């Protein structure tokens, strides 16, 4: 009796997953109207820039597939604080454009920087700009284009300039601006008008 009840619940669960996850998802109109978030210093949890020719901000949803079907999960701004001294902060987000459940644009950006206000707040995000102990990440920025898969990264010779304009340790808010160029093995990607305002 219990096993039959379990099978009934399992079949209903898979049916509900399909009815909610199998609908066509389309955010192409919102993608076409995407704007950069205003620059703020309030811990608004925003991130945006112009990436190549595209205004980029955390937007859209990504399709997650599992044993009970697939579903569209909204892209979220992610902030990670490493317990180094001084601490490292990583800010990451994705922008996905989807038309009739087919992704036509999917780029993720992330940057990692020291959470300190020395040097007037200026950070040079390049692979070798900060000497770190083995196993610890350096200050850097990268973008991943998932259609087609291609990675871009800041370099030590031409680092991305990130300026921390506010660091409030009591309220745990950090805000700033960034710009520069990211490089792949064969190509480059300009980053302009970058701004972020996050709580950590």
TrEMBL record:
Domain of life from the UniProt record: Bacteria
Signal peptide (UniProt feature, chain positions): 1-19
Keywords: Signal
Name of the protein: Uncharacterized protein
Organism: Hymenobacter lapidarius
